[in-house]
Amino acid sequence: MQPPQANYEIYEQDYTEWLDITLNQLQNRDLENVDWEHLIEEITALGNEQRRKVESYLLRLLIHLLLYNYWSSEKDWSGRGWEKEIDNFRLELDLLLESKVLYNHCVKILDKIYIKARNNAIRRSELSPEIFPENCPYSLTEILNPEWLPS
Q1: Per residue in 31-58, pLDDT tens?
Q2: Whole-angstrom Cα distance, residue 86 to residue 57?
Q3: Between the CA of residue 25 and those of 4, 29, 31, 69, 88, what are the distances in Å?
Q4: What's the CA gap between 82 and 87, in Å, rounded?
Q5: Which of helix, strand or coil describes residue 145?
Q6: Which DSSP string do the residues of 79-99 spell out, in sequence order?
Q7: What is the rounded CA–CA span in Å between residue 26 and residue 6?
């Protein structure tokens, strides 16, 4: 069902106004006039954005954990900086993972993201690939634990 043309065009012209109108329509159960096409598009994009954030923070967290754990020749110089970054990425992930759906997504993608993190750590450190485990050496509990660092 196509919404009235004016509402449909507002999406293209004034996104904030479209959000306000759509929210008001939903709150008032004015379902006949909702711009369903754009609403579905926006909800889908929001979910995708949240999943991408989880993937991005997890990737960067794993890269820093790997560098901290295995790049011993740089640890004296960069270790504190890596610890700060690890803390920051954990904080961001912690906020996102309050959502059970996003937590489950994190569990599901851990192995795939670890491979990317491992490849990045190898490129960044220029260390032999054999130094870095092929499978994630950390549990998700360890990865997310603000008190834990690899030894």
Answers
A1: 999 999 999 999 999 989 999 999 999 9
A2: 10
A3: 13, 6, 7, 53, 39
A4: 9
A5: coil
A6: HHHHHHHHHHHHHHHHHHTTS
A7: 17
